Amino acid sequence: MKRVPFHYFRGPYRQTQLGESCRAIDDLHQQGKIERFGMSNLRNSEVEECCDVCKSNGWILPTVYLLRKLGISFYAYYPLAGGFFSRTIEQHRKQPAGGRFDQINFIKDMFVNDTSLKLYDMPTEACEKQSVSLKEATLRYMMHNSALGPENGVILGSSSVERMEENPVACEGGVLPESAVSAFESLWTQHTEAGHGPQYCI
Fold first, then answer.
1. What are the residue ranges spanned by the domains of the chain?
2. What does the alpha-carbon distance between residue 116 and residue 187 come to, in Å, rounded to a whole number?
3. Does domain 81-196 have CATH number 3.20.20.100?
4. Which tens digit of pLDDT belongs to each residue from 178-194?
5. 12/115: higher pLDDT
6. Which of 65-74's residues contact partners 24+ apart within 8 Å by CB, and which partners?
7. In angstroms, rounded to a whole number, what is the distance separating the alpha carbons of residues 195 and 175?
8. Count of beta carbons in the 10 Å neighbourhood of residue 19
């Protein structure tokens, strides 16, 4: 592959000025190696700084992130919250060693913590009443009930080929019933109020 559709600036290396990173990405674009400039794990202020620097220098602008006011798309990743919505409560409480998040505890702790485990039953019970799995309901919420618009996207990942084949099918299920939507949104509100809101605008 000589050219990639996206190049993600996946979190700043703060010993380097943002302008230097943006210049390097523009060089890749000028060489025809990337089509679009995306950003991930940057603060609001850093996103705006990148946009200002790129505009003032005539460099490629980022077009894949979350800020509508800057005309930037948001591609949601970890739609199943790192597996939180695809495992049972028992699996979360007895997680085996050797998982892919073992070496990156800050990601694991972001999704699986005391608060999220206490709230787990809320969406689970709402989904059971609608005869839909928690995993399917989560993906349907992301695709059809969340704040994502047609200019946005969802990045699906998986730990196995079988699950990767299941996920797109689940996304096609359509809009969720209001009771399930309310359960997801209540979980998020309570999780955030307990101090587990995102530290970055992702």
1. 4-73, 81-196
2. 8
3. yes
4. 999 999 999 999 998 88
5. 115
6. 65/38, 65/39, 65/40, 66/201, 66/202, 67/201, 72/39, 72/47, 73/151, 73/152, 73/153, 74/148, 74/152, 74/153
7. 29
8. 16
